[in-house]
DNA sequence: ACAAAGCGGTTGTATTTACAACAGAAAAGA
DNA sequence: TCTTTTCTGTTGTAAATACAACCGCTTTGT
């Protein structure tokens, strides 16, 4: 677990905390390490979760397959980001989504109750972690709203423009690489893959953008 | 402001805190009272927000009008619920949505920094408020994901079923009243009003549900 | 009481999407 | 290297949607 302390230091959750301090907090926070192969489920719909999970290696998707087999990708988690924070409340019930490794991945799970409750003894920087946790969870909140903004667009084209514009802004560049292949992007925007592929090519032909594989450039 | 202490007591934020304790915390938390007439803006897109806002009277909508005039209702806030918690982080930037009173409404604003930082002197129950805040913000998170679930449905009918099913479950009854008129419901689900109205009537004719005004019953 | 505004339902048409099926290119695996 | 699988783009058709326009009813405000 010590191996990943440098990764943890760069996360939002441990922002402003030194590696030594993180090391000494691991036990206090009930940290446990788990690894998953590509395609494996980290968490499953219906399970109970009593942990905050930080991804320290790989990439996972938060997704859900409905009754008819339609897959929705609700979000992607990159190294250093966390998930499960929506279930910190005792009465929050079971997980509504699956979490799946899209690459070989490693996570560290922290006991929720130990994270949000400052312990009386030691752990001088625990209160900073509590505050970081606030900021992280509220940032996640804004991201969800942003995604709702994409989803509330009526047409596939509008959804694409909404999403790609955000990515361009996030990268501070009109050229960027997206972390999805076509099927995943379609699942993320909740549209049909072939229809989206079609629309993408139309937009390219109209001179709105260029792309090659996952590399895009808005014009 | 004292007038609303009983209302605050029943909110998620002050769960487990007595009225006397709330009264004594108001100053500590930098509470301020504001009232709005139906239709007035509580907050506007582009503004900076440094407060947690609790609705103590009326009802407000979190919404956004895009470049073309399409309105999206991202969420509704009822008495006792809070909003603005997505902007607690110092670097969270400006508001991305409008907050509009859909009835005459009254809110109490609390200084963010004072809420999430326990003060060294007095305020014995402040730490409980911090924990409540965690639970509330994480619950909001789940709600957003739930809404994403509705939005990710492909057709108007599926969106309606997804939304109405959730409402039925929330009310623990197949009969319930929704807090939207037709136009608002359409804005909430990001579909065309007339198309939705049409679909709703089709579903009624097929015997899937009954409705009269805002009262629905699933069959 | 009356006029004006808002609400809910209906219809027709042009547009857009979902779905299925297929083909070539690229990637993965044996 | 060869085979298999995955990925991406393309096309055609049936289905669903957006949009505009209209009507009757209810609510609001004067």
Please describe what this structure looks like.
The structure is a homodimer of 219-residue chains. By secondary structure, chain A is an alpha+beta fold. Chain A has two domains: 137 residues, Jelly Rolls; 69 residues, Arc Repressor Mutant, subunit A. In chain A, 38% of the residues lie in helices and 24% in strands. The longest helix of chain A has 26 residues. Chain A is elongated, with a radius of gyration of 19 Å. Chains A and B meet through helix 4 of A and helix 4 of B. Chain A binds a DNA duplex (30 and 30 nucleotides) through helix 7.
Question: Which structural class do you get from the secondary structure elements of chain A?
Answer: alpha+beta
CATH homologous superfamily of the largest domain in chain A, by name? Jelly Rolls
Strand order of the largest sheet of chain A: 1-8-3-6
Low confidence ranges of chain A: none
The 3D shape of chain A can be described as elongated
Number of helical regions of chain A: 7
- From the alpha carbons, calculate the radius of gyration of chain A and give it in angstroms: 19 Å
Largest sheet of chain A: 4 strands, antiparallel
Please name the CATH topology of the largest domain in chain A.
Answer: Jelly Rolls
E-strand count of chain A:
11
> How much helix, percentage-wise, in residues of chain A?
25-40%
Strand content of chain A: 15-25%
- The CATH class of the largest domain in chain A is Mainly Beta
Chain oligomer state: homodimer
**What's the domain count of chain A?**
2
Question: What's the pLDDT, averaged over the residues of chain A?
Answer: 90
State the largest interface: A-B, 36 and 36 residues
């Amino acid at each position: 677990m010590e191996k990943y302390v440098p990764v943890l230091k760069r996360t939002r959750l441990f922002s402003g905390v030194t590696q030594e301090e993180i090391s000494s907090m691991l036990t206090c926070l009930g940290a446990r390490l788990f690894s998953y192969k590509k395609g494996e489920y980290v968490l499953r719909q219906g399970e109970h979760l009593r942990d905050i999970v930080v991804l320290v290696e790989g990439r996972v998707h938060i997704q859900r397959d409905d009754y008819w087999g339609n897959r929705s990708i609700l979000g992607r988690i990159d190294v250093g980001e966390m998930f499960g924070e929506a279930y910190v409340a005792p009465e929050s019930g079971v997980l509504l989504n699956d979490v799946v490794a899209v690459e070989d991945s490693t996570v560290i799970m922290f006991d929720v109750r130990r994270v949000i409750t400052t312990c009386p003894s030691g752990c001088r920087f625990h209160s900073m972690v509590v505050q970081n946790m606030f900021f992280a969870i509220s940032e996640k909140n804004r991201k969800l709203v942003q995604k709702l903004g994409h989803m509330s667009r009526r047409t596939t084209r509008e959804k694409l423009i909404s999403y790609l514009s955000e990515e361009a802004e996030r990268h501070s560049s009109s050229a960027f690489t997206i972390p999805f292949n076509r099927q995943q992007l379609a699942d993320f925007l909740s549209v049909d893959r072939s229809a989206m592929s079609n629309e993408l090519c139309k937009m390219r032909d109209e001179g709105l953008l260029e792309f090659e594989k996952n590399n895009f450039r808005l014009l």
